[in-house]
Structures are given as structure tokens and as C-alpha cells.
Amino acid sequence: MNQEVFFHLIGENPVVFTDNQRMERVLEKPSVIESMFTSWFKANANYSEAQKLTYGQFDSKFVYNKKNRCWTLRKRGFTIGRFIWVPPCTRELFYLRMMLIVVKGPLTYDQLKNVDGVQLLTFREACFALICTNL
Fold it and tell me: For residues 43 and 62, is the Cβ–Cβ distance under 8 A?
């Protein structure tokens, strides 16, 4: 089974609503606060097994429960996660995607931008720093 693995920049998680919904109701939705991606950070904190996996590898060992908005250890079955494609013109989102392919077990967005103990400001800087350290 294949599953698309979604990710987003800070505060840019997608929120689905209809034209006639009141904005207060939309902002109360759990998906505004917690997403599959941000739940990954929590799972990394809660499971030592999670810290050994990149986001792309994650759903081979864990399953996302949409109702409870959390990741739990996979009990049976197998799936292959597939990252959504983003073009380089999306800039920071593109570089975030690149970091998610190699970084294992971060607890925050900032930890994704930390390369060899150096805290970088952007995912672009982190991506290039990671390339330079692996040359």
C-alpha cells in the first residue's frame, strides 16, 4: 500500500473548510493546530524507534491515526510512504523536503535546521550546510 506523506512550513498546514462555515468554527478545527507532520515531532519524542527514521521512512514502522491525530507503532502490514513533489521555486518548502529525506528524529522545526551543532536560520542554509559537511 502507498501513502502520501504530507509536510508543511511552520503555520502553513492546510485547512479545509466550506464557503459558508464561520471562521471561528474553522479555527477551532484540530487540523489547524495539529497535522500529520507536526504529530511526527511528538512521535519522535515519545518513541525511541522513531528517532532512527527519516520522515519518509516513518510510515514503514508507524501508522497515523487521523481521528486521534497521532502516530502509533505499526502492528501489522507494510506501506511505502511517498513524499509529495514540490518544485524548487517553492523555496523553503523545497529545502524542507530535502532535509526530511536525511534528518532523523527531530522534535522541532529548528532541529531540522541544525547541522553539526550549528543552528541555521533557513532550511535552504541547512540543506547547503549538510551538503558541505558530507563532501
Answer: yes
